[in-house]
Amino acid sequence: MTNPAALPADWRDLYALTKPGVMRLVVFTGLCGLLAAPVMPPPVIGFTAILCIALAAGAAGALNQWYEHDLDALMRRTANRPLPAGRMDRQTALHFGVGLGVFSVVLMELATNWLAAGLLAASILFYVLIYTVWLKRRTAQNIVIGGAAGAFPPLIGWVAATGTMDPLPLILFAIIFLWTPPHFWALSLFVRSDYAAANVPMLPVVAGTAATRRQIVLYSFVMAAAAVAPWPLGLTGWIYGTVSAVLSILFIALAFAVLANRATEPAQMKPEKRLFAYSIVYLFALFTALVADRWLVA
Asked: What residues contact 284, with CB distance under 8 A and at least 6 apart?
């Protein structure tokens, strides 16, 4: 039922629907994928491609909140979002999300190529249908499989510039795919009670904190291997290779600090909070090094 008090939606609530914190990382990795490509589109086309990635991310965030309004209401960190807080009705969120998504895909096809537009559409549908609707409430592997949704942007940026899928952007996709579980599991360890209250089967809720910490270390090693791989494969130069190796060693060290921690209370989970914060810095720094390598070494 529509909540009359929620209408009309404030622009700030519409903006909050797009999950701007997540969008920044999505836009950045998409931009780096475009800048790392061997050919550059005209500036207006490049800007339009990145705008489309941002709009698509916003659409996915809005549709995610539309579907998960009931879960968001049960968790402290999401209870103040527009829908659970009662500042917006669900129909507005649905129309906003669908409109943004359709517009972003159509504009991408008109500005760049059909392959980039297809990948953009796939990224929205994967996040909404596969992760949000199918996986999140059903399996502790939700983040493992669902991580693919956030891995599309650098691939889309590259394809928007080149029209082709090549080995390097596929590895960039794999890096973000493998980065997502340790990044998100670190967060879920210190907000475990929220997920338990909402009956969301995140790994710490289903398997416990010790098993989650072991999985964080395992995925950190695999992610690090993928992150360094472009250098020995001859796809990048020494700048990226050196930076990726150093950043990955630090990531693994922080993952082992998480493994060594036996705390079950959020207040005692400083290693987990450090890893979560560093994981964001890690991805920004890694992709910055990729672009620097492309423009300074190539």
From this structure: 25, 28
